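Pasting as-is:
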Amino acid sequence: MKIGIDKLSFFTSDLYLPMADLANARNEDPNKYLIGIGQSKQAVIRNSQDTVTLAANAAMKIVDDEERAKIDLVLFGTESGVDNSKSAAIYLQSLLKINSAASGVELKQACFGLTAGIQLAMGYIALHPDRRVLLVGSDIARYGINTLGEKTQGGGAVAMIMSANPRILEIGTQSTHLTRDIMDFWRPLNRDEALVDGQYSSEEFIQFFKETFNLYLESQDETINDFDALIFHLPYTKMGLKALRAVLENVDNLSVKERLLDKFEDSRRLNREVGNLYTGSLYLSLISLLTAGTLKDGANIGLFSYGSGAEGEFFTGKVVAGYEKMINKNSVKFLENRQAVSVSEYERIYRSFLKPQTDDAKTDFKNDPAPFVFKGQENQKRIYDQNNENRN
């Protein structure tokens, strides 16, 4: 049975910060950001958006009335949860008006949550071939103003519907996995912002990729020549390039090197413009590759997922003939309409985010053009709304 991604979508804020402006404000050479980490723009998430609304705004693009009736499992990958008990999947199911017979859970392991969801969905659909599963990876990457991690912030959500006989990507049944207890990135319960050992995390990322990739090649009796593209979780796009170069060092075939490097450039195009999505980063890279329009039907893609702390997994996907009908450059055209903000405005928005508190509070939701917004809290209950006109 063929199982995989049938629909795929992405959402992020309507605001962005030019990375050159941030570099200048921090007295850094802009090329350190533009080339050194490979980022051009960074999504600036409004305080009226959170993990739930980002996910809802992404998923609404692919969830119609027919899907609302057919979806019976919602898997929500995030490391930016809004409640220590209640799953973000429940909020999402309610906002999208998915049938109440569907079940849902939230999955957490740093940036690995959505990939874990894909593996769960594979098994579920194998047992129930007529079912459809909604999966989302939604996060806001926050490290703090004027910190070392500031230049790798961002945010957004990727949503997908998985099913039998998918129309975008058939997921391979084999994968290789690696788990180690390390402290390269973490966020204690008393913190809104992440802590990271940047150099250590980068080294582990590359090592996890090399180990899982080589183990996959060995177990499946394949070589790097068998892949049309290799794509990565991209906390910043230079990270994926470093990992790719680490396995290209011993490749003598220049055409293979050129092909994989060219496809990597296609795959990081959108991530350069948005920044770090945490759980959604690998899948934004997939969207970037698919919407570039350079893949042939049946192309074999290798995907590397990494979640700090740490888990890594290498798996594959085969592009389905006619995928362009389901996702193409028009799917991400909204990114061209975003507005740039100044560094001072970015800092104001960043500081305006609601912190855990007992008092009632409101966000600046009236200025947010997104369909779904987070309005604030009343009696320590989060208030969401869907209405892009005449908000009050």
